[in-house]
Specification:
Blueprint (H helix, E strand, L loop, with lengths): L1 H34 L3 H14 L3 H17 L3 H13 L6 H12 L3 H14 L5 H17 L18 E6 L6 E6 L19 E6 L10 E2 L9 E7 L6 E6 L9
Antiparallel strand pairs: 1-2, 2-3, 3-4, 5-6
Helix pairs in contact: 1-2, 2-3, 3-4, 4-5, 5-6, 5-7, 6-7
């Protein structure tokens, strides 16, 4: 009977050890994506690890990392939810109060955001972002209660459901514009591991004599490639374009 008990205990210990190793392995893979800045791809892996890991310290780290992934992929509602979890788990880094407040502010929950900015300010008084966050929310509340005569219009000719940024006029007449976008029509078939969007290209749109802008089209192959292009800046005489290109090397990617 003793031998059988020892055998069963040994089996149980081996099972627990193998389970623990498997949990750490799942998290290590997710953490590798996260550390390499592949935030979009890391989200599902981290959430999978969160559901499997039992160690409370690792679980707390994962909670913060998932929130960070949502913040860095511009998903403030989901970021808010996970930062809240991180606060509830008493994550050791006080930065969670600042990022939680930022997410709340983006979601127009200004009063709750002020509470968390103040908490961050109390914990990290030397960082001006706490006080600046409080003031920005107070100003937002004031502006919403007393709107001015200006209206922000969505320029539908330029904006899509994907990401658009860094507009720059192409000519001194201001009738042609360059901007960066990850919309459909961008060159290449791969998606960015950090954002989950297409690799961005530089698009252009022109304004006719009636003031109507044309449907944006990508610039030619001498500018756009299968990699990431964008952030156009023009010289003073509009004869020279400066832009960034970030190439991707397969050997640097995580399999």
């Amino acid at each position: 009977m003793k031998i059988r008990r020892v055998f069963l205990v040994s089996i149980f210990i081996l099972f627990v050890q193998s389970l623990s190793v498997a949990q750490v392995s799942v998290y290590n893979k997710a953490n590798e994506y996260y550390k390499n800045g592949q935030y979009y791809q890391a989200i599902d892996l981290l959430r999978d690890a969160y559901s499997k890991v039992t160690d409370n310290d690792i679980k707390s780290d994962i909670t913060f990392q998932v929130a960070e992934c949502y913040r860095k992929t511009n998903q403030p509602r989901k970021a808010e939810m996970w930062y809240k979890k991180s606060v509830q788990k008493k994550y050791s880094n006080p930065i969670i109060y600042l990022y939680y407040a930022d997410a709340l502010k983006m979601n127009e929950k200004f009063e709750k955001a002020i509470e968390n900015y103040k908490e961050y300010k109390k914990l990290v008084p030397q960082d001006p972002r706490g006080e600046m966050g409080v003031k920005s929310c107070e100003m937002a509340i004031k502006w919403m209660e007393n709107p001015n005569g200006y209206k922000v219009a969505n320029i539908k000719f330029f904006n899509s459901r994907e990401s658009e940024y860094s507009p720059a006029f192409a000519k001194a007449e201001y009738d042609e514009i360059y901007f960066t976008s990850s919309r459909d029509g961008a060159t290449g078939d791969d998606t960015h591991g950090s954002t989950g969007l297409n690799f961005s290209d530089i698009f252009t749109s022109k304004k006719d004599k009636k003031g109507n802008w044309s449907t944006p089209v990508p610039l030619g192959e001498n500018i756009n490639t299968e990699f990431e292009e964008g952030a156009v800046s023009m010289s003073k005489d509009f004869n020279t374009m400066f832009f960034t290109r970030c190439e991707r090397h397969k050997k640097d990617a995580i399999g």
